[in-house]
Specification:
Elements lengths: L7 H8 L5 E6 L35 H10 L5 E6 L9 H9 L7 E8 L9 H10 L1 E9 L3 H6 L6 H13 L3 E8 L6 H14 L3 E6 L2 E2 L3 H7 L8 H14 L5 E4 L9 E3 L6 H14 L15
Parallel strand pairs: 1-2, 2-3, 3-4, 4-5, 5-6, 6-8
Antiparallel strand pairs: 7-9
Bound molecules: iron/sulfur cluster (SF4).
The site of iron/sulfur cluster has 12 residues, from loops.
Length: 304
């Protein structure tokens, strides 16, 4: 089947020709200001206690995690993804020490750092710039939506404006930014989601990650779902929405993810999302049926 979108796999082939690269999730032991009381002690309504990071390796050191993944996949190259919680939320010294661990492994060819838009202090940028001179570095910023009503509902506790400031600072430091977006936020209309995509076309991040809004156990979202306060997207509805949005997304923006999934131990709903391979192939089939490629209907925010 023809891949009709600018996929992460095709990006990896272009960026690292000649060898296979695998991205490995790491819990680097950071916290999150939206959880530990600095900003809020409640966290985002969808966030699990592992801060979206790996569960099985939760108690292991960074080195143990890297060695576990790399020894099971000998001969391959890797990108370390510091994923759990906010991976720029510490002193520059601690950050540099933890980022530098990847240079002990010559089969690691890049570092991706996941964080909140309001958690990169001024003195952290020189650290990021230093790392980016030594390896391929991307920062993954959780945004979820450009709409303030959605950011409020999700209890993000940062504005779109703050995201934009951080985005521009990273870009002027020469660092690729990947933006995380959630599809299916309660109260968001098709037009709201399209506006988020049109805004991405305007600011042009290096990549986006689409996550389906899904419910994990022991989250505020779990309670809201149980109480009937929110409704989740049906599979057909999600596939239609995501296909439309990809059709509108600038073709140069790499799509790092097409859906969201999580370990079965903490996953609650919707059940269909657990089979992410099937969801991805349904998206590809729908794009084929419609003869639609990424960016075919692309518009930017100012034209809307
Ligand atoms: S910012 Fe990230 S780690 Fe922090 S509460 Fe929200 S989703 Fe969880």
């Amino acid at each position: 089947m023809q891949i009709r979108y600018n996929s992460f796999n095709s990006f990896l082939k272009r960026k690292f020709p000649g060898y296979k690269v695998r991205k490995i999730p790491i819990n680097a032991g950071f916290s999150c200001p939206n959880k530990n009381g600095d900003i809020s002690d409640e966290g985002c309504i969808f966030c699990d206690r592992y801060g979206s990071g790996p569960i099985k390796t939760f108690t292991q050191s960074i080195r143990q995690q890297i060695e576990m993944f790399t020894s099971a996949n000998k001969g391959k190259k890797f990108i370390a993804y510091y994923q759990a919680h906010s991976n720029t939320y510490a002193s520059p010294e601690e950050l540099e020490e933890k980022y530098n661990i990847i240079f002990e492994y010559n089969n690691i060819v890049g570092l991706f750092i996941g964080t909140r838009p309001d958690s990169i202090e001024v003195d952290v940028y020189p650290v990021l710039e230093k790392i980016s001179r030594k390896t391929y570095l991307s920062v993954e910023l959780g945004l979820q939506s450009i709409h303030e009503k959605s950011l409020d509902l999700l209890n993000r506790n940062h504005s779109y404006e703050v995201f934009l400031e951080t985005f521009e600072k990273l870009r002027s430091s020469g660092i690729d930014v990947i933006v995380h977006l959630i599809i299916g936020i309660p109260g968001e209309t098709k037009k709201d989601m399209q506006k988020t995509i049109q805004e991405m076309n305007r600011i042009k991040p290096a990549g986006v990650k689409f996550h389906l809004l899904h419910v994990l156990k022991d989250t505020k979202l779990f309670d809201m779902y149980k109480n009937g306060e929110i409704k989740l997207m049906e599979k057909k509805e999600y596939i239609k929405a995501i296909v439309d949005l990809i059709g509108e997304l600038d073709k140069d923006i790499v799509v790092h993810r097409l859906t969201g999934d999580r370990d079965i131990e903490i996953f609650h709903a919707p059940e269909w999302a657990l089979d992410s391979k099937r969801v991805i192939s349904a998206i590809q089939k729908k794009m084929d049926d419609l003869n639609l490629n990424q960016g075919q209907k692309s518009r930017i925010a100012s034209n809307s």
